[in-house]
Amino acid sequence: MEARSITAEVPMVPRMSEDPAELVPELAEVSAALFKVTGNGSVPRSTISLIQLRAGQIVGSTYLTVLHTGFLRKAGELEERITSVASWQDSPYFTGAERAALALVEGVLQPSADGERVSNELYAQAAEHYEAKALATLMFAIGQVNFFIPVALIAKPVPGRSFSDPWK
């Protein structure tokens, strides 16, 4: 595979010309169920959006990063919070519960020098901030964004276009 020059322009067309959701219409039911699960109210929507933004940053997906940044802006999040998600560890803009959630998504998505991505200590820190249903919801929110990471990285929808129409 030939590497692209760092100075080359990135095309504003999707890699995959057809919408995967149209090719596999069964996805709509799965997607709706995932959104329903993460919207059960046990975890603030802003926290879910923050961890999904962080997931997009970790995997290097411009599409997911732009998408979740847009969701946060539309929800009225402070620009300082949105822009400091990448450096949340030393940012003063996040609560302890949000920090625990961000640490969880990083634990799941990044290799650990210790071998175990989500240590007992990390789990215990998250459990201090979230009751059982909320902790399960966080797990499913991380799973939800992970479900769509292959679409973002393989099909490469166009960043900045409508969530329902990135294929044109």
Helices, strands, pairings?
Blueprint: H1 20-23, H2 27-38, H3 45-59, H4 62-74, H5 79-83, H6 96-109, H7 120-129, H8 132-155
Helix pairs in contact: 2-8, 3-4, 3-6, 3-8, 6-7
Number of helices: 8
Q: Write down the Rg.
A: 17 Å
Q: Separation of termini?
A: 26 Å
Flag low-confidence runs.
Answer: none
Global outline: globular
Order of helices and strands: HHHHHHHH
Got a strand count? 0
The gist of it:
The chain is mainly alpha-helical. The protein has helices at residues 20-23, 27-38, 45-59, 62-74, 79-83, 96-109, 120-129, 132-155.
Description:
The chain starts with 19 loop residues before the first helix and ends in a 13-residue tail after the last helix. The protein contains eight helices and no strands. It is mainly alpha-helical and 168 residues long. Helices cover 58% and strands 0% of the residues. It has helices spanning 20-23, 27-38, 45-59, 62-74, 79-83, 96-109, 120-129, 132-155.
Features:
single chain; 168 residues; 8 helices; 58% helix; mainly alpha
